[in-house]
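Chain A, query sequence.
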Amino acid sequence: MDNRPIGVFDSGIGGLTVLKEIVEQLPGEDIVYFGDTARIPYGTRSKETVVKYVMESFNFLMKKNIKAIVIACNTASALAMEEAQEKFNIPIIGVIEPGAKAAVAATRNNTIGIIGTEGTINSNSYQKYIRKQLPSAEIIGVACPLFVQIVEEGWENSDVAYLTAQKYLLELKEHNIDTLVLGCTHYPALRYTITKVMGEKVKLVNPAYETAKLTKNILKEQGLLNEKIDGGICKYYVSDDPEKFKRVGGNLIRRQIESVEKVDLSE
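Chain A, predicted structure.
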């Protein structure tokens, strides 16, 4: 049994949806979550900047004696995954590959939509992983940057969310997709609104769930699982405003976040 914690990293708050799935599938594991809230958003930044931020954040997590890191951020997974795996000698698990595999398994007409930040969509990372497994796939990527703000305001089931989704998702409806990847960790909160726009026949893929499943499998394969049945502890760290993190994060995962510590990555 390996009782060291799992590190979970995000550029901000959305990665809590991944943490929630990990807690549900691995309830005995301790988790250290770090959200780089002072430097959000990552989605509009250059690859070089994202890689720099990710490396600094991982250096902080490594001080917590973690046994693996889950990159609970689509943009960071798209732009910094390879560099992180080269530098750190522990399992590094991103959200894009498991999400892409689930989309390939789900599609019936080989027409797949992806929604995410500009950084995720422009990186073509989902497209590359999907085409490796399904070369004939037609893939339509659409950036939906306002969805993050809508979720963080708690407006995911509002008229504002519905009208915004109608505008963003029009192209996907026109291409008759049958599978849609929620390529940003905030977006699972918008499942109801997105389904309302796209219709019940479109399968929504939640990479957060698939990532937690992959994390469990990798830890098991490498003998790193904590064999406790439950009782895992989550510790939360951010680089800015703990109070906003507690408020928005608690709404996102539907549970109260008691304690959050602010850290300075420059120290």
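DSSP finds eleven helices and ten strands in the chain. The chain has two domains: 6-94+209-262, 97-207.
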